[in-house]
Amino acid sequence: MCTRRDERACRADCAEYGRPARFAKQEGIEADDDALLNHDAVQKRFRQELERVNRELADFQRIKGFRLISKPFSIETGELTPTLKVKRRVVAEKYAHLLQEMAR
């Protein structure tokens, strides 16, 4: 998941990979990874979780937009450092199209 908080900053968070698949299995939803992440029920469930988390945060900390991605961040694909920190510049470049979409 990559979240966008404002025009200049990208906050990238890794959601547990496979969690949408487990939810879909429980709900009887069958789809491939990309279709599953865009399925209305999965989007709704994720939005509910964000709303729950956002209630405990100050306004400036709240996640206002999100897009789910099918591949987890990894060292091999360049989004994480060897100490598992998110390389924000790399994520911002790799997912620029999603960030621009959220800015609209």
Largest β sheet strand count, sense and barrel closure: 3 strands, antiparallel
Round the Cα radius of gyration to an integer and report it: 14 Å
Q: How are strands sequenced across the largest beta sheet? A: 2-1-3
Number of domains: 1
> Oligomerization state of this entry?
single chain
**Shape category:** globular
Distance between the termini: 18 Å
Structural class of the helix and strand makeup?
mainly alpha
The portion of residues assigned to helices is 40-55%
SS strand fraction: 5-15%
Counted by DSSP, the helix tally is 5
Structure summarized in a few sentences:
The protein is mostly helical.
Describe the fold and architecture.
- With 104 residues, the protein is mainly alpha-helical.
- The protein has one domain.
- Helices cover 42% and strands 8% of the residues.
- It contains 5 helices and 3 strands, in the order ββαααβαα.
